[in-house]
Amino acid sequence: MQLRTDIEIAREARKLPILEIGAKLGIPPEDLVPYGHDKAKVAQHFIRGLADRPDGKLILVTAINPTPAGEGKTTTTVGLGDGLNRIGKQAVICIREASLGPNFGMKGGAAGGGMAQIVPMEEMNLHFTGDFHAITAAHNLLAAMIDNHIYWGNGLEIDARRIVWRRVMDMNDRALRDVVVNLGGVSNGFPRQTGFDITVASEVMAILCLARDLDDLEQRLGNIVVAYRRDRSPVFCRDLKADGAMAVLLRDAMQPNLVQTLENNPAFVHGGPFANIAHGCNSVIATATALKLADYVVTEAGFGADLGAEKFFDIKCRKAGLKPSAAVIVATVRAMKMNGGVAKADLGPEDVEAVRRGCANLGRHIANTKGFGIPVVVALNHFTGDTEAELQAVRDYVAGLGTEAILCRHWAEGSAGIEELARRVVELAEGPSSFAPLYPDDMPLFEKMETIARRIYHADEVIAEPAIREQLRVWEEAGYGALPVCMAKTQYSFTTDPSVRGAPTGHVIPLREVRLSAGAGFVVAICGEIMTMPGLPQTPAAEVIRLNAAGQVEGLF
């Protein structure tokens, strides 16, 4: 029997009109801005009216380090939200929007899978409601105004050698990592070297995802440091008077997007910073709105817990005043085998010893997540080739750490296959929690990076050139020392070498570059060879994506 693809399942969904989904949350029709019949934005004035309501329980779904074998973190997030609704709880799902770069590159979409999906899946993985385009336009408007200001006399005395604001686009294109602009003579400006990042790495994306409302958004945009003068004093976005126009471009994008699962449960899909090169969480405004409307909010953080969960706790929760009640760590038998040294092509046969070896990676993530003071449960995402002995090996290992691993079959069975996990999450969320970030605000910036490297990555040290340490010192003197740090690092390993799996210790984290995101409110530490503009693989997914005779998209999944 041939299994249906995700896109085939999504097309057969019996979606409710989006106004009915909004009604489940008590959102009046006049406070929804429909984008077609199956998606809508929630109006800002409605969100402002929720301020006095109590918050529901916040549940984070995270995972082990991603492997080519697949873990199913988004699928589990969606399944758990459906499962909580199935057992009678009012639950809302909050996830990120998908970037076009990985959709046409290698990773694919981000709407869940099987019977645990958010729909409309095709639109979510393509242009959706245009939020990413608005972010790209706002970012590049600022870039254009910098060069335009220099062209017309440079009244702010910007040092063209010290412009730090690059350009962005939402596509993987390695050719744009380093470019020269303003070629072509006097009428085109002064030539200089710059480059492109992918839109999900834009500080504007981070700002939109951390801003509380439109006023906060505009203030944060104004705080962006775009360049420095010859005396090293900063030039801000507000100095160029670009913040107002950027906020106008982002006005609609700031409104959370409401959609639904295959089981017609509400989901907010909003914002999309990557977790390897940015902070990896959906928007604060979507999460905060959901907490006012539901008893339980299930959200996810990008990639593994070493990146996404750490940034969720240390950046998003710290900045937004959020206090998660429990965390779910997603793992699979297949991924345990890969962490135990088995090649992807050899994952089929039973190999209990490899599973046991690979469990060290899961154990590291469990210990790290517990270190933030919240209860943890493991979601053992079921694959058809798993054997009972392999599943039991994971259960036994996790039990030995004082935690529980619960087998979940939501991909095949929807909410019926994840009821046990849903009930356990409720028990944990209703119990005691003592959440606290990893480090205090007043810790020096380099020490914050060292703390993450030692306590989360289990590295021996962080190494950095004197110029980088001096830059951090200058930022501290300028008043930025209390900011959290955002580690840009490979998602595949606790080290900066993506080929090193398991739970390595004793390695070194090389700090290659630091960037100040003064508007977003964090300092980015670029470690190892991580790129803020990805490239396409040798055979990009774009080669097989096309329209069929019926005008439907094929190849997206």
UniProtKB/TrEMBL annotation:
InterPro entries: Formate_THF_ligase, Formate_THF_ligase_CS, P-loop_NTPase. The keyword Nucleotide-binding applies. Pathway: One-carbon metabolism; tetrahydrofolate interconversion. CDD domains: FTHFS. PROSITE patterns: FTHFS_2. It catalyses: (6S)-5,6,7,8-tetrahydrofolate + formate + ATP = (6R)-10-formyltetrahydrofolate + ADP + phosphate. Its EC number is 6.3.4.3. One of its GO terms (biological process) is tetrahydrofolate interconversion. ATP binds at T67, P68, A69, G70, E71, G72, K73, T74. It holds the Pfam family FTHFS. GO terms for molecular function: ATP binding; formate-tetrahydrofolate ligase activity. Keywords: ATP-binding, Ligase, Nucleotide-binding, One-carbon metabolism. HAMAP family: FTHFS (MF_01543). Belongs to the formate--tetrahydrofolate ligase family. NCBIfam families: PRK13505.1 (NF010030). This is Formate--tetrahydrofolate ligase. It comes from Cereibacter changlensis.
